[in-house]
Amino acid sequence: MNKLLKKKKLFFGVIGTAVAVVAGVIALAMWPKKEGYRTIQIYKLDGRAEVNRQNQGTIEPYVNMMLQSGDEVKTYEESYLYLKMDEDKFLLAEPLTRFRLEASGTARNSRTKIELDEGAVVNHITEPLSKESSYEVKSPNSTMAVRGTSFRVYVWYDENGVSHTVLEVFEGIVSVKLIYPDGSESGESRQFRAGQTAFIWGNSETSDYDFVEDTIDYYELDIPTLEFLKIAIDELKNYNITIPDVDEIIRLKQTYFDVIFKVGEEEFGRQSVLFDHTAHEPAFRPTLAGRWDFDFETAIRGETEIQWIEE
Q: Is 30 helix (H, G, I), strand (E, B) or coil?
């Protein structure tokens, strides 16, 4: 009799467990699925940087560190910090850059704002944003908004304290609104397309566009920035802008060129100058009356001859 009871209990126990498992599977299937959490990760750091977090103070960043909304990030000289957000947004902070990060929403419907105080950030959004998503870079005098594109924003200040913003659009379209000293925005926005460079300024009274060029000088970009640009070229499916070969630009930027000083047909001296750097005027002059026919603020981008002119 006891054996029979045990068998019955075992049978109904197995049935009960099976029913519970099936019910659990049905409940999971019917439960509303939540969208994935946002991830903002430092995936590479060359040099020194710091993160200031509310209620925690200064934190020394490290690879694979997760950033939070409200974090303030700073890079030091010759230092580059790389972020990956939600698997489809990449950011490079160049040397001597300060920005504040605001992030909310989900991985699918994300809202991101980079408040750039100074320095430069390069942004790649490799997948189109959803209608509920936004991605903005805010400078002291303007706001750049995108749906999915590749661009660089550089902020600097002149000796009079005037803020300058340089926008370089590598791919896609960037919509810009001016920000005035009282914090208000311009009513209308201007759109800048791939290949354009926009220059914007702002002082204590107003903000305005300086000028716009239909070219980007890729040779002025640092080597890490050029290498970071490859992410956009590889990841963006419709990267249509025609640029010089990035690897060739990097090779050139590591090349030294001869700068030859000549008096008539005779060589007076020469210097070896790294690409895109400047030569310096020789300490000795060939004659008392004369000058070198050259602007020594000009960047050297190939073998150069400089002629002495008698006056």
A: helix
pLDDT tens digits along 201-244 = 999 999 999 999 999 999 999 999 999 988 877 776 555 555 66
Q: How far apart are CA 169 and CA 256, in angstroms?
A: 29
Dihedral sign computed on CA atoms, order 191, 140, 136, 170: positive
Q: Count helices and strands (H / E) in the chain.
A: 3, 20
Q: Which CATH number fits domain 40-249: 3.90.226.10, 3.40.50.970, 2.60.120.1440, 3.30.565.10?
A: 2.60.120.1440
Q: What tokens does 246 get?
A: 């990035």
Specify the residue for token string 């989900």: 106
Whole-number Å distance between alpha carbons of 298 and 283: 18
Q: Tokens 């009282």 appear where?
A: 182
Element (H, E) at 308: strand 304-310
Q: How far apart are CA 113 and CA 252, in angstroms?
A: 35
The residue length of the chain stands at 311
Q: Indicate yes or no: pTM above 0.85.
A: no
Phi then psi for residue 32, to 5 deg, are -60, 130
Asked whether the CA dihedral 113, 98, 150, 212 is positive or negative, the reply is positive
Summarised one tens digit per residue, pLDDT across range 119-138 is: 999 999 988 899 999 999 99
Domain ranges of the chain: 40-249, 255-310
Q: What is the CA radius of gyration of the chain?
A: 29
Three-state secondary structure string covering 144-156? EEECCCEEEEEEE
Q: What does DSSP say about strands 163-171 and 197-202: parallel, antiparallel, or unpaired?
A: antiparallel
